[in-house]
Amino acid sequence: MACTQAGERTAIYCLTQSEWKLDEATASFFQTPDVFHRESMRDAVDQRKLEQLYGRYKDPQDGDRIGIDGIQQFCDDLRLDPTSVSVLVIAWKFRAATQCEFSRKEFMDGMTELGCDTTEKLRTLLPSLEQELQDSVKFKDFYQFTFTFAKNPGQKGLDFWCLDDLYREMVRCYVEAIEKLPERRPDPATVEGCSLLKPDNYLLAWHTPFSEKGSGFGAATKAMCIGMRYWKPERLGTLIEVSIECGRMTHNHPTGFLGSLCTALFASYAVQGKPLVQWGRDMLKVVPRAEEYCRKTIRHMAEYQEHWFYFEAKWQFYLEERKISEDSGNEATFPENYDAEERDKTYKKWSSEGRGGRRGHDAPMIAYDALLAAGGSWTELCQRAMLHGGEPPARDTGPPMGPLGRPLPPAHW
């Protein structure tokens, strides 16, 4: 036990599986420690006590499931708010298929796997289960689970036959939001863009004219959810299309809608667990595919070509400034003096009009710069990404990304 740092129960289980041969038991443990720990936890569960516990929560009309009343009692016994992230973590560990219920198998197998036959044991275990979300592999599994878990039973994806239907729904939501939120008006480009949307035109609902005013930050600040929806590398084509179409509904200018693409890509890279230093250069590698998509749609390419280079050039200069433009660049370089005052000067320098984060290229750039510099500090991230003198809404593009370069767990969204 001193050698392996295993608990007594795990040590006994490991020895019994190796016929009490110490060398074999030790070798087996170091090869697969998680397996032995899990198996010993299973053996420690009193199945009769677990059956009694299940009986406390099961649906009176259906003994093979725990319904919403049972879930509420379960949460009460655990002293948890049903809406807390802890409940979602338990559902993840139980591999629950449906919201607000557990099948008998899910509950029994989940509790057994965790080595718990009482709610007291499970409550004691919860902090370590939540700590697992700090592991990037387990966080990715948790993220994938929550996306599937949130869907309605039998639902395979979004309730749209095609992306055009998704765009029509976006148009409807944009127009409705603008009408209902007069007291908190978004940026002028968003207002103008929404006024040009045509919710009653089935074929051209989301088609808006090119706009010289559409280079602002508004499209970039809305696109994170697109990257989280289409985060898998094999869905890159869909991410490109949806982020561009969503962006140019309100910001039909390359600097504007490429900001939407940039934010969506960064969110997808975060979920993938891609190293931060690669995000900027990998994003620039995708921009030619975005241009190819725009050519295929045959809309406003003459105007786009006149302005397309600006976004790419600004980002290329930024990556060179941080010395991460080449694949060999594995660590961003920052000025020795990079306090709040110096950062504001730098943010203004990146801007096209002297106010940081006002355009689609520099809003995500400020957020990315903050992520690179913050390391593992949430405080540093907030100070760099949010507490600056630039455009207020531009501060919304970065903070939901955690200090480790991935989306924060749902409790922080």
UniProtKB/TrEMBL annotation:
- TM regions (residue ranges): none
Q: Where is this region: Disordered?
A: 388-413
Question: Which residue intervals define the domain DCUN1 in the entry?
Answer: 45-159
Which InterPro entries does UniProt cross-reference here? ADP-ribosylglycohydrolase (IPR050792), PONY_dom (IPR005176), Ribosyl_crysJ1 (IPR005502), Ribosyl_crysJ1_sf (IPR036705)
Compositionally skewed regions (Pro residues) per UniProt: 400-413
Q: Name residues in a coiled coil.
A: none
Q: Which key words tag this protein in UniProt?
A: Ubl conjugation pathway
| One MF term in the entry's GO annotations | hydrolase activity, hydrolyzing N-glycosyl compounds
Similarity field: Belongs to the ADP-ribosylglycohydrolase family.
Q: What is this protein called?
A: DCUN1 domain-containing protein
